[in-house]
Amino acid sequence: MSKQQHKRFCGLHTLMGVLVALFCFQFVAWAAQPQKPRAARAGARAKHVTRITPQIPNADRNQRNKVFLENADVLLADEQRSTDYQVLRGNVRFRRGDMFMFCDSAYFYDKTSSLDAFGNVRMTQGDTLQVTADVLHYYGDDQVAQLRHNVRLENRTTTLLTDSLDYEISSNVGYYFNRGTIVDNKNNTELQSEFGRYELDTKQAEFSTNVHLINDQYEMSTNLLRYNTATHIANIVDETIIVSDSNTIYTSNGWYNTSANDATLYERAQINAKDGKTLVGDTVYYNRNRNYGIARGDVVITDENNKVILDGDYGYHDETAHYSYVTGHARAREFSQKDTIYLHADTLCTLVNADSVRLLRAFNGVRFFRSDLQGVCDSLQLSEADSILNLYKDAILWSDERQISGAEINVHLNDSTADWATLPNFGLMVEHIGEDYFDQLSGKRMKAFFESKELRRLEVDGNVLVIMYPQEKDSTYNKMVSAESSYLNLMLKPKQEIDKITMWPEVNGKVIPLYLLRRSEKFLPQFQWYEERRPKSPSDIFGRTLDNASKGGNEL
């Protein structure tokens, strides 16, 4: 071999070595690349490029929708395999406007400003937004970031945790669809659901399917809920149950302020309190801090423990004080006895007094009906402890053909019937005999005893006045007996047959045949017959109320 040929051979050998080395480098770079990226499979819309160039350091970083590669320890590329993306590793950092994206490794699609990021993925935007995840797929054309696995989004005092989040960067709206939790750190409230949507600008979130709002005082469960993390107000738009230690709330429409702990609920909302009472209304306002509720429109307050139902146009219940009242077409139904009492007044309330005794009270225009007993008065009280019915001011009671009236009447209810009654400040008892004839008895104090709904004994103390029409053996009436004394005891047999009358110490009286009886002699001075004001049925309690017993009535 000549010297010149030897030089040519050595040069060719050196060139081949360089080519082999270059080939080995390219092969190692190609072999080191991971599997084909998801963004490419999902359709990154980049046109093939003939050349990959680095990001220009001094380019305008505020270009609309443009993603810049800011840093990477390693950049790999193989134009023969793909001209769409670059492979980046180690301390990878991207920038899109004021948003930065960090990861351990990535595929970067420069032409479409898209990328696939893996490992310790983090997105930040100023001091308002920080997102972490295991994987990020960002599509520049759609401006959508898909974050997967161990996703955590922090927006000021709000944290979103999920496994799958799609984030629309242009509108600052995030969607999750594989179970998620939003934590309102400022309000100590946690929201969980299968699907969710969160608007970072308006702080408005919508949750659907198996929704649970949880804090240290209650848990709200529904299938659709809207919540604002700035106002802390939950808008209820579906059937919802709110459970706490103090009560359970059922509603399907309204709002709940989780910060102030109050709510306004619509469409027959219901509150079941721990004291056994239930509050229902067309509109219900509830304050959890003060434990009271207000209801309007077809209000029903049920006290199942004490067998009382209140209903009306407006209602109030205080769980702490165990106090409830209703007004406006108000009615109470007391069913602790075998026979229900139907009661109407301007205002009806139930409460627990200082002795822990439950009371039912009624004020202004009281009317009540029970099958064996009816009455009207200005105000009324029924005590659970002793089953005593107290009627105050212009009180009137009816039982069968008998009417009892006085300034105050107290009736003791035993099971299904009244067994005694007192009139401590004057009483008048009237019984209709027929036509315009009435047995009448009055006195300063009066006590009556009943058996099987019939009067059996009557005790009268002070200023006793009597007008009676004794029944003859042939069941006719032909005379009137009038008498007065200081005391009287009256005993009666079944069917109201007089057994014995005792009057003492002195008795003044007279007997007048009916044909000689003048009209003015038929009645005691205080006589009034109020039959037209008597409630005749449960619905009749809403009839004409007693304006003033001392002025009204029929004076026969």
Provide a descriptive summary of the structure in words.
The protein has a 38-stranded antiparallel sheet that branches. The protein is rod-shaped. With 556 residues, the protein is mainly beta. The protein has helices spanning 3-32, 38-42, and strands at 68-71, 74-76, 86-96, 99-109, 114-125, 129-139, 144-155, 158-168, 173-176, 180-184, 189-193, 195-199, 204-214, 218-228, 233-236, 240-244, 247-251, 253-257, 262-273, 277-287, 292-303, 308-318, 323-327, 331-334, 341-344, 347-352, 358-370, 373-383, 388-399, 402-414, 417-423, 427-434, 437-443, 445-451, 454-468, 479-493, 497-504, 508-513. 6% of the residues lie in helices and 58% in strands. The relative contact order is 0.05. It has a domain at 39-155: lipopolysaccharide transport protein A fold. Strand 28 (373-383) and strand 29 form a beta hairpin. The protein is built from 2 helices and 38 strands. The model is unreliable at 9-54 and 545-556 (pLDDT under 50).
